Amino acid sequence: MRNGLHIVPGFLLMGAVFLSGCFAPKEGLYPPSEESGDHVTVHFIKRSWHTGLLVKKNAVDTLMPDLTRDVAKAEYLNISWGDKEFFMADVGTVGLALRAAFLPTQSVIQVNGYPELSDWYFDREEVEEIELSRRGFDLMIDYIHESFARDSMDNLVPLRERRTGMSYFYLSNITFWGTRTCNVWTAKALRKSGFPINPYLSLTAGSVMRKVRRNQ
Description:
Elements: H1 2-19, E1 39-47, E2 50-56, H2 65-68, E3 76-83, H3 84-88, H4 94-102, E4 107-114, H5 119-124, E5 126-133, H6 134-146, E6 158-161, E7 166-171, H7 182-192, H8 205-215
Antiparallel strand pairs: 1-2, 1-5, 2-3, 3-4, 4-7, 6-7
Helix pairs in contact: 6-7
């Protein structure tokens, strides 16, 4: 019994470390060094239940040339991930939402390109600006790039271009299911940059927004 009493608190302590200390800023990545001046600005976007990341296209041209060719006229890219059926539906239904929540499903990455961003964009979205180190930014983009599925010729797999603007859907190689939400994907991308966020406690858009605002 005495050994058991010591084992249980040990597991609790390990869990506490996993949920907190393990997700402190990654030294050398975040925050970016003020002396180096080599910073990259990223915008975290929250729209209702969904989240994504807004980046400048010229910052990712050399990292994702196979993607940026499709949006050559864009200056900004809003990149997000989600369940294929729900995300690509003209109208999201309760049935599609329940299917995505309880069944492993295919996923897609949506890329929206913008030639410019005026004040109306930031007025209609919940947006937070994050400064990343160049190395942290590159690691974040590597994670995003690796989320794309590829065909036998190692090309991205486009699924559909929307009727208006520069908006594309691509097949992803990650399975969507209950605790692997679009918000967890966004949080994982931020975590790759060294940002202090726990993806495993980031199921909802609101929880990610709170962590972003608290840790800047």
